[in-house]
Structures are given as structure tokens and as C-alpha cells.
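Slide 14.
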Amino acid sequence: MPRIILLLALLQGLVQLAYAAPPELTDTATPPGLQVNAAPQGVADISQLIIKYKSTSGIASAQLAAPKSKQLQALSAVAGIQLNYLRAMSGSANVLRMARAMTAAEAEKIAAAMMQNNPNIEYVQPDYPVHPLAVPTDPMYANQWHYSAANGMNLPGAWNITTGSTTTVAAVIDTGILNHADLAGKILPGYDMITNVATAGDGNGRDNNPTDPGDWTTVNQCFPGSRASNSSWHGTHVAGTIGAVANNGIGGSGVDWNTKILPVRVLGHCGGFTSDIVDGISWAAGLAVPGVPNNPNKATVINMSLGGPHACSPAEQTAISAAVGAGVTVVVAAGNNNADAAGFAPASCNGVITVAAHGPNKDKAYYSNFGATVEITAPGGAQGFANDPNGVLSTLDGGATTALNDNIYRYYQGTSMASPHVAGLVTLMQAAAVAGTPKRLLTPTEINSLIQNTAAAFTPGSICANNPTWCGAGRADAAAAVAAAAAFTGTPPPPAGKPTAPKNFKAWATSSTKGKLTWNDVANETGYKIYFKSGRKWKLIGNTVANITTVGIKGFRPERRYSFRLKAFNASGSAWSRPSSVWTLAKPTRLKCRFVRKRGTSNYVACNFKDASRHERGYAVLSNTGAGYKTLGVIRRNSRSVVIRYRGFPRGTPVRVKVM
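Slide 15: predicted structure.
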């Protein structure tokens, strides 16, 4: 999995089914992991892999971790390199360390070989390194243009409705936190999720101290040719934008004057690892993480001002879907590459609010990513030099390496700065909703809809106006969004409790060896469990994440009856669907065709075959005249012969008969 990069812009079902063995859920294509501002192509900076076995494999973390583990030995043999067990992580995945570092291309090739060799593996991906993009660019509210009605997020109008609530929690998954004077009384007990001691920089691995010790680097520390950099104190800057104390006589203000900040440290020297970030997401959302005490202060919103140039990886999507399923809104930065955000993660993950950046001119910042995956644009700054006041002003520290604790403020720019504006807006909206008409917390979907529906339009002729698919629904308008949240009268979410039973669950056979399962999605579930009937018992063959309505299966044997059942589940309980059975099909056999030429009429092909299936709906007849096989027609079930008439039908034309 990738190392994560701070998005602060620099001035710069497969179901293997056999009757004797239960089937397994189909795995979709596994996209590469997250990597941001990574080492140049060809640099050996991948030292870890993330692996997850299918739930039916029977292989647990303890088996991988055992001395002389047979599973680990087999994986090492396929990889061609010694693999050592490192740790378990959330989502039932595990982290393996390789005997030597290698390039991303080499690691991806090994991961692909492991997947191909072992059908029990759900996914393998490199634990990609991701690196900070942060370089620093005082203390009066008048300098925070990004909050204004004129060219910022229009916060004064929102503050007339609410200044937030101490019952909301904003998780900042970042470099950690400092005890800045303008954050006094706002910080909840967080956690340091970094497992690699060299990356952590605090002399140890995971612990309950999320203090930022500094993320400075020296020349060549991260990879050959990497430059030295000062500590960014990025997490402290992000936290100040979300929730710096207001009306205390110092500094500026945060978006939300009352929300609590939950620091989750995942980034250190040279960045961090996606495996740590995935665990950070789970922990912040109140979900279990192996070896880590449960979080007693579940987040209302998670902010991730980090990302990388890869599609959303399976581990990331699983963690984000679980967090959203638990009612947590996830806000992420779009990225600073002036490129389509669809190629970046977590910006491309499903269920998140992806935030692009605009400057004081209310148009797309020159560095900001863009595209259809962007939900909204918010103030991120557009600087021309370091500490240019056209950036976002927030809490910081003046230490080049370790903290000076001097309680300073600096201007930064980036989608890293835009994202916490929206995260703070989310907590304001939730405070308004609880106190207003809904008198309940809004769902992540409702939050996203209200932010988009109340967005301010871009100035005609601007980059965003001229490219309507680039910058989301518009510029975030806090006053309008908070007012809408306070007055929201939409249908409330399903009451707390176990989900309802899935409807219209159906097993289908699509060929003699393949099929699929389909059903109607139910509300308030966090996922589904798929069961296969073996003898008189129902055996679990795998899980899905929330909002899935179909899975593919393969490995059927012809002319067999298979029964399946579906269970929707959440933290409160579960509910079963009705069983669904399917008879698999058998391919027609003994196909023999003869070509007949008729003078003055069409040539034709006469074919005979054995009807080997008892449960087919019919047969499709296909031929290939040079442009691939195309269906000529369909014949009824129980047929055993077919005559194909076609003017000018060439001799030797291939013919197929496909059971349906």
C-alpha cells in the first residue's frame, strides 16, 4: 500500500465452486495502491506487501505469524524473495515485509504472481510509500480571506446560525498534533498509528501519543536523490483550519469554534504507509484495529489531506466504506498535480467528499486536481512565494526539525488546506442539524447532497465555469449549507437496529461454469455475507462491503443444483434473505456441421448436436465470418439440430452453439 502524501501544494465472487468444496466470492480487478509524490520511477522504495485472504481460505493471521509458517514459505517461494510477517491490520488484512526493497514495478509483478498462484488470496498489493507535498509558504482574523463572504467560504453567515458543538469530533489523519495555544482545550486523546520506527521519528512504533515530533528529512533519506526538507507541522495546520479557538485574543479562528479534534498520526519522515492509514481510518470511525485499544470518541468527520497518483486500492475502499457505513463523513483532498483526480487516491474512492482548491480569485488554483470525481471546491490558496498571504493562514510551529512550541501562524496552500475547510463545515452542519429541524445527525450522503446543492456558482468565464465537469458542484458556501442543514426535512435514515431482510435474492447460471448472485440493496447495512449450502449446512463463502447488489461466481460443474443464501448485517444484528437455487447448464456436445451449396438459392449449414442440458432456456447460434463470433439467432430448448441459411455463406465458416 502506498505511503501517503500531504496534499499541500508546493510552489511548485470469484466463486471457486465445486460440489464438495464451498464457492468463494469473486474478486474484482485489484487496482494499484496509493502513492503520492513518490520516488522517481525505478527507485527501490517498496519494502512491504499487504495481503488479504478470502474468508473461506481458513488462513488466519496467526498462521502467517507462526514460526516456520508453511503459508509464508509458500508465498516466499512464489515471490522469489523471503517474506516475513510484520503485523495484522484492520479489514482482516496482513502486512508482510520483504527481504529487500524493490521498485514498484517489481513489487506489483510479485503481487500479481501471488494472486495468480493462490485462488485463496482476495488481494495482494504493495504497501506503497507516500511522501509529503508540504512546504510552509500571523495572527489576525482579517488575514483569513478564506473565511470571508467575498472570496472565501462565506463563514460569517454560518456562524450566525451556529458556531459548532463540543459533541462533534473531527478526526485529522495526518502528521500528528502539537499543543498550540490556539488549539488549547480542543484536542481529544488520539493515537500514533505509525508502525515503522524509522518513519515514526519518535523512537517507537504504535502508541497512544499522537504528538508530531517533526517530519524533516535529510538528503537521500527517502530515496536516492531525495532532497532535504524541514518539518511541515502539517497536521497542526490542518487542525487549526478545522477548529482553532475563536475569541481568545490570539491568532485567527477555525471553521468550527467548538468541535473537538481527534489526531491520528500516520505520517512521519518520508511520509507513511497506506496500511497505517487504513488502520487510522478504521480506528477514527470507532471500528476495531488489531492490537489497538478501541477509540472512545468516534469521529463525526474524517479529514485526509493526503493522497497519491493511483486508483483507490481495495484496502482503502474497504476501510472508507466501513467508516461511511458507520455514519462517518470522509473528506479528502483532490491532489495538487493539476490533473484529473480520477487517477488519485483516496480522491477516487467511493463514498468520500473530494475537495478541489480555489484561490482568492474564486477560481481553480493552478495546482489543484480536477474532474468528475471532485464533489466541491473550497479555499486552498494560490501563492506566488513562501508565506504569501494568498495562502490559508493557520496554526503552526517555527521549528525546522523539532518543535519550538512558539505558537506561530503561517500561510500554506494546497488541496490539503481546502479539505479541512469542508471538514469543519461538516461539523457545523451536524451541530445545526441536531439543534434544528431534523434534530438528528445527517448521513454522509445527506451532508454531501446539501453541500453540493447549496454551492456558489463560479464566475462566468473562469476556468471552472468554462469546464463544468472539473470543479464539482461549485464553491462551498458555508452559510447556505448550514442553513440547509438546520432546516433539512428529508426522510430520516432507517432507525437504529439490525437491517431488513434482502429482497429478490436470485442465483443465476450464465454458462456451464459461471453464474452470478443478485439482490436488492437494503438500508442501514454495513455489508453482506454469502452462504453456500453444503449438505444440510450453510457455509459462509465470503463477505461484501456495503451497497453491493451483485457478485460473480465461477467453478460450477455442469448439471448440478446449487443453493445460496444472503445475510445483511451491521453492528446491531443481521437478517437473512430467502434461499435461491440454480441448476447449472451443460455445454452442447458432439457438434457436427456440414456445408450445403444450393444453386439459385442460399447456401446453408446444417448442424446436429447433443442436447446435454436439462435446464436450459434455449440455445444461441453463432458464426464467425471474419469479424468475430456474432449471434445469428436463438432456438428453443431441447433442440438437437439447426439449419443456418445465409446468402453467400462461405464454406468453412466456424459455427458455435451456446447454451443459455
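Speaker note: The two ends are 42 Å apart (CA to CA).
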